[in-house]
Design brief:
108 residues
């Protein structure tokens, strides 16, 4: 009986932490979440947006569907790609995932 009363006394004395120390783990987790997940994703989205804005006729690109082609026409929302001699497809600009180096399509 003597041990139980001293355990309650010890537990009550440690409960007086500052409010900032209670929220510190959540603040650290949010900071890590931002630095490791949100910031790199925003950077990649910005780079993709700049690449799509800089597209021009004659650029070689890769689409989300895996098509590699040369840009023949551009509009605000769509791009026309030549994927083979005389074969053209129209894709949404947002479906273009990357710009290829010149001559990549001929080497395929």
């Amino acid at each position: 009986m003597f041990l139980i009363s001293s355990a309650f006394a010890a537990g009550g004395a440690t409960g007086a932490e500052s409010p900032i120390m209670q929220f510190l783990p959540m603040i650290v987790i949010f900071a890590l979440f931002y630095l490791l997940l949100i910031r790199p994703q925003q950077k990649k989205a910005k780079e993709t947006k700049q690449m799509l804005a800089a597209l021009s006729k004659g650029d070689e690109v890769m689409t989300q569907g895996g098509f590699a082609g040369r840009v023949t026409k551009l509009s605000d929302q769509y791009a026309t790609l030549e994927i083979a001699e005389g074969v053209e497809i129209q894709v949404a600009r947002a479906a273009i995932t990357g710009k290829l180096e010149k001559g990549t399509i001929k080497s395929l």
